[in-house]
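Budget justification aside, the reviewers requested a transparent look at the raw inputs and outputs of the sequence design task funded under Objective 1. We therefore reproduce one unedited record. The lines immediately below are the structure tokens for a 548-residue chain.
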């Protein structure tokens, strides 16, 4: 009798699970409305990069399409809605029950010179290290553009680091119309050693995934890496540890690789940095290099101890002595650390821009859709380390360096080499701070000499002087006060001396003249903006002309 009861219960549970796996169109529509209402009622603050109206329109389109869609297409459709908020912490995992999408057995990586097969399953040795030219007949650039709407990318760096491998999900590839049907095979056009060829990949068994560590395949008896395994560069050594340090005697530099914002069990973050900086002083190190390029975040409350230790070590907290390597995997709590380093220390950033906005919505809560059981992560905490007017899509390195595939394959590290080789004693890592300092201290003659030189100097190519100067002028203009508006006119006039074809500067200059009542000069400036950029800034300039 007991066995019979257990059999009936198991049968009942199996039937119940089976029923849960196949939701009706109406149930999916109910889940979609639940998600929509939850966003409006509990997370309205996320409507920054998209509007409630645009979101609702996309929801309605998906709602109407659901009866004609397969389950995976519905889920990918929901992921597009989530990604439209463009916050990395607000996301849907494609590797959760009841979703658990399949995976093709390869790992893509974005290098300076293109998208490459960084690693594959052992069954595809010819593909390892090949450059990707096309996916299912679609050129790689177009294929990436097709899947981009499924990625909650805060910026282009986030997409390169965390988004391009959405190409290995057959469900996404189909839902985004790269294949006509949901299929377990896909053919990629590849190039390797001067030879172009096609490689067909078959999905891994259900529930199996590509083993990666900080974005790179972990090679073993089943998985192959494109990187020469005979040696390992510093940034990839001991990745099982949160932080490691090494003294580079020849360069008189201390190197730290910090790949997670968390404490090691045997040594806290505070104690680690205290020990490292004691070594910096004891060995009279000439440089400290902190490598955060693989750091995806963690507990940002640990950042304070790092900053305090650095501020107390005056020997190394100097321009030209402290370098921090950042990159496209620098994200979340590590973005907070990068911001604080920028705010309080004399750091010089090296590498690539970060994957996070300077100020951002982070820390998410799980929201479970009642019918499908699908879990969605929605951000609820605003992190602001920078003044609102200084927010930006990423932290820009003062020494921009990106790695080519060949440099990765042969274990070179041009980013670390750039930090070690840098020797410019008069370098201004924050050139706009220097410009503002000269302006506000009344050193206008020196500013007139220095600014054109900096704009022409390759060392400052990382700084968009035109955009930054316009931003400063616009801040003055928006104050609405006459003295500040007059100052704004001076700033925009200066921009036009340096960048005479700046349509944006002409447009803002026109706005400034409107604010002072000088309609004749306003019209002249606005007409120039329209002539230079009729389909961009010129549209707004034409609207201003109409108002005049």
């Amino acid at each position: 009798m007991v066995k019979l009861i257990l059999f009936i219960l198991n049968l009942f549970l199996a039937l119940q699970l089976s029923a849960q796996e196949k939701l009706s169109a109406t149930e999916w529509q109910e889940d979609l409305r639940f998600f929509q209402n939850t966003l409006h009622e509990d997370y309205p603050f996320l409507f920054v990069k998209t509007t409630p109206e645009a979101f609702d329109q996309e929801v309605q389109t998906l709602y109407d399409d659901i009866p004609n869609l397969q389950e995976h297409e519905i889920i990918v459709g929901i992921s597009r809605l989530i990604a439209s908020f463009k916050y990395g912490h607000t996301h849907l995992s494609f590797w959760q029950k009841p979703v658990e999408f399949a995976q093709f057995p390869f790992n893509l990586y974005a290098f300076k010179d293109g998208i490459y097969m960084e690693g594959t399953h052992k069954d595809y040795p010819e593909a390892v290290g090949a450059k990707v030219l096309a996916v299912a007949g679609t050129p790689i650039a177009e294929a990436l553009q097709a899947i981009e709407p499924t990625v909650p990318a805060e910026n282009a760096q986030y997409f390169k680091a965390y988004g391009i491998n959405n190409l290995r999900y057959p469900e996404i590839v189909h839902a985004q119309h790269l294949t006509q049907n949901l299929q377990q095979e896909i053919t990629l056009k590849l190039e390797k050693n001067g030879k172009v060829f096609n490689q067909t990949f078959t999905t891994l068994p259900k529930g199996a995934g590509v083993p990666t560590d900080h974005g790179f395949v972990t090679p073993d008896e089943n998985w192959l890496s494109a990187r020469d395994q005979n040696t390992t560069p510093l940034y990839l050594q001991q990745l099982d540890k949160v932080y490691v340090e090494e003294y580079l005697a020849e360069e008189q530099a201390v190197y730290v690789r910090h790949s997670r914002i968390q404490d090691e069990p045997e040594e806290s973050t505070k104690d680690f940095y205290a020990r490292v900086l004691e070594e910096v002083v004891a060995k009279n190190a000439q440089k400290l290099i902190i490598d955060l390029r693989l750091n995806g975040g963690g507990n940002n409350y640990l950042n304070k101890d790092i900053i305090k230790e650095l501020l107390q070590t005056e020997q190394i907290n100097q321009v030209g002595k402290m370098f921090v390597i950042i990159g496209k995997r620098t994200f979340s709590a590590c973005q907070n650390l990068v911001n604080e380093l920028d705010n309080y220390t004399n750091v010089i950033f090296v590498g690539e821009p970060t994957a996070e906005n300077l100020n951002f919505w982070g820390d998410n809560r799980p929201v479970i859709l009642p019918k499908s059981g699908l879990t969605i992560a929605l951000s609820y905490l605003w992190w602001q380390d920078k003044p609102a007017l200084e927010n930006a899509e990423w932290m820009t390195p003062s020494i921009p360096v990106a790695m080519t595939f060949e440099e990765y394959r042969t274990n070179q590290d041009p980013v670390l080499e750039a930090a070690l080789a840098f020797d410019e004693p008069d370098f201004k890592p924050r050139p706009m701070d220097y410009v503002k300092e000269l302006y506000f201290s009344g050193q206008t003659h020196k500013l007139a000499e220095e600014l054109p030189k900096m704009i022409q100097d390759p060392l400052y190519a990382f700084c968009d002087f035109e955009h930054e100067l316009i931003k400063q002028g616009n801040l003055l203009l928006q104050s609405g006060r006459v003295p500040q508006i007059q100052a704004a006119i001076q700033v925009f006039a200066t921009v036009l001396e340096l960048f005479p074809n700046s349509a944006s500067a002409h447009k803002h200059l026109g706005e400034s003249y409107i604010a002072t009542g000088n309609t004749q000069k306003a019209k002249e400036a606005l007409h120039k903006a329209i002539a230079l950029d009729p389909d961009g800034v010129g549209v707004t300039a034409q609207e201003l002309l109409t108002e005049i």
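Confidence is low (pLDDT under 50) at residues 1-20. The longest helix spans residues 2-21. Computational costs for records of this kind are itemized in the attached budget.
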